[in-house]
Each structure stands twice: as C-alpha cells, then as structure tokens.
Amino acid sequence: MSRDLVVLRPEGLYCEAGGFFIDPWRPVDRAVVTHAHADHARTGHRRYLAAGEAREVMHARLGRISLQTLQWGESVKQGDVRISLFPAGHILGSAQVRIEHRGEVWVVSGDYKLETDPTCKAFEPVRCDTFITESTFGLPVYRWRPDAQTMAEIANWWADNAANGRASVLLCYALGKAQRIQAGLARAHALAGPIVVHGAVAAVNAAYREAGVNLPVACGVTDWRRAAGGEAPLVLAPPSAAGSPWLSRFGESSLAFASGWMRVRGARRRRALDRGFVLSDHADWPGLMQAIEASGAQRVIVTHGFEAAIVRHLSERGIAAHALRTEFGGEAGAESDGEVPSEGGLEASPALTLDGAAPASLLAASPAEFGASEDRRAATPPAQTASRRTS
Ligand SMILES: [Zn+2]
Ligand SMILES: [Zn+2]
Fold first, then answer.
1. Which secondary structure element, helix H or strand E, spans residue 186, and what is its range?
2. Fewer beta carbons below 10 Å: N end or C end of the chain?
C-alpha cells in the first residue's frame, strides 16, 4: 500500500510530498488555509496559501501575512504535488484543497455546506481517491430547512418585535453567519427597519464589502441612536456579547441565536433565548452524505465533529472510512468559528492519533515554496473580537 498523501503531525495535517500543512494549529513554514475561521486560520505561519476570494477576510483576521492566493481551479506545483482550490460554500473564500501526486488525488474539505449562501461561491464537488471531510453536524438528526424559510422566520420575528417597540437581538458568528443573514434578508426584501451591528461584525462586513460582496446598509450603535426615529432595529452581535453592557443599550429586546445547534432540543432554553433559528454554515447529515458520494472517493477520512457516526455509516456501505483527530473547533479556550455546543459536546483531545498510530516523523523535507507572487499588503489590524467563541 502506498503511503498516505496527507498525514497527521503535531502541527496539523501534513502533505509530505508537497512539504506543506493544511490549516495547521501550530506555526509552520507553509500553510494552505481552507478558510479564515480562527480554528483553521492561525497566526504565526511563515507563508500562507488561500483562495483569492479569501484575501480580504484573511488579512482582516490575520493582519500582515505573506499570502499567496489561487483562483478557483487554478493549480500550483508545490514539491512533488499540484495544489488547487475549489469552493467549499462555507464562508467567503472557503476552499477545499485538492492535492494531486502521481495520478493520486486527495481532497481536504475544510468546513463546507451545500446550502445556498449569497455571500460566497457554492460548494463544488471534486472527484478524488481520498476525501478528508469535516463532520461538525454528522448525525442523522441534523437536517437543515431551506434557507429562504429560515430567513422568512427571522424577518417575521423582527417585524413582530418592531411592531411591539422591541429590538431584535440576533446572536450569530461574526464571520460568515452575520453576513449571510444580512444578505439573505436583503435578498428576500425582508428588511423591517435598521440593522445595527456589533464592532466584530462591522469589521468583517468591511472585509466582505472590500471583496465585492453586496451587503445591506448597517450602522453602529452610536449612529443608530443619533438617527431620527430610533426605529426598533435588528441587532447582529457575536454570542460573546450576550449579557454585555453593549446589548443593554437597546432597551427592551428579544434575544435569539442563529446556529445549527438550535436544532437540538433544549439548546435554546439553556441559553435563555427567546428564539432559536436553525441556520448553519456546515453541511447537515444529508449534505455530508451527498458531498461524500459526489467525491467518488473510495476512502473517506473524517475529522472534527461526529466522526464515529459517519465512519460507521460509511463502513456499513462498504466504503473504507476512518476518523482522524484534529484540533479544529471545540477546544476549550481556543477561538473557533463558534459552531460548537456550549455544553462541550465536541471536546478535542490534545492527543493526536491517526487511526491509533503515532504521528509520523517530524522532519519536513521540501525546499520548494509557495510561488513568487507574495502579497505583503498592509491590512487593518486583526479583528480579534470577530473570533471570540461562545461561552
Ligand atoms: Zn469554519
Ligand atoms: Zn472547522
């Protein structure tokens, strides 16, 4: 049996033939980054490679970094492999990484969803021999409803609150989810008043706009107070703002949370929320199965989430599958894209195992580099607050 093209090292997922890591959690020389969420895109690497569509959010999150970008489908040679990136549909610029080595193809999914999202390019299936997939919502209970339906629910809740003079406070992750909601409501012509955004959301909005994404007008709390009328707003804030003095400025309000975890019975009550909207930027169970099937992979490696359920399901259907313990999402204290249950259902272990085997040797080999077109552009300071994870 040939050696695995991507293996687990203490630093993260590693492609030895190419001499690079994918979304490493410790500082490395070369990092291919699938997307700008904090558990996948970390500071401290020497060189970064990401999708061109991710450029603005990567700089907004990581500040001044040496970043090379690839257009969708464009490939670059790195060591003995060719790397190309394909849309993952998760947030703006989120990519699946395709790695080709002597005719063998591996795809690392990063985070992905199949649902429509007006703020990023739709997920594109990529044929491969081995597919490394996330599994954040990898249980059959997780099934999302059509986006339009959820947007209509949010719009109705907002209109109802406005009619009663209450602000509508919607907690959601500042990078990706907040923009998807703003664009989704605008697209549905469902803006029932002013949108007020927390600073963390405003910083990401700016990066999205710079990247050419159309978002409706949103203002900060000061401008909203100054504006005549003071209509009851929709307030978008990260989960960490819950209970903060910042939120108390809106007076009487209804508190809601938009997350895939709202699908779980009791999640809303435990957070003392008035409403929970089931809206996720990760694939649901049918989405995961659809993506796995569309990849045509004979072998599936499952990371961060409910690995066991997917491995069992695929194994029963004759597909070679196993889990790989990564440090994406869920680790206490680490920042993440936040789609993590506050009850700690996704605890990550510091012990790294690859099918129970010890990590391979630690010697990185290739002297090759991420091409010549480095991008050292200055950027706004990292939007730290944009990435605070929930309790
Ligand atoms: Zn993510
Ligand atoms: Zn993730």
1. helix 177-187
2. N
